Amino acid sequence: MNTNITKRIHINPQSKGSLGKSFEAEFRTAWLNYHQIGWNGSDLDDRHQSFADRHPEQVQAYKLDGENESKSALLGLFRNVARSDAPVHVIDCRAQADGLIVQALDSLQLLSSLASEGIRFTFFLFPSEDTESMNNLLDLFYFAGDRVDYVVVHNPAKVRTNLFRKSNIEAELRKFGAREITLPVVTSITLLAIKRAEAKAGHKLSFAEVATPGTAHLELMLAGEMQWAMQQMFRQYDALAGLLIPPAQMPEVEPQNEPEARPARSNQPMLNLGE
Question: Which of 88, 214, 241, 263 is such that its CA lies 20 to 30 A from the CA of 37?
Answer without folding.
Answer: 214
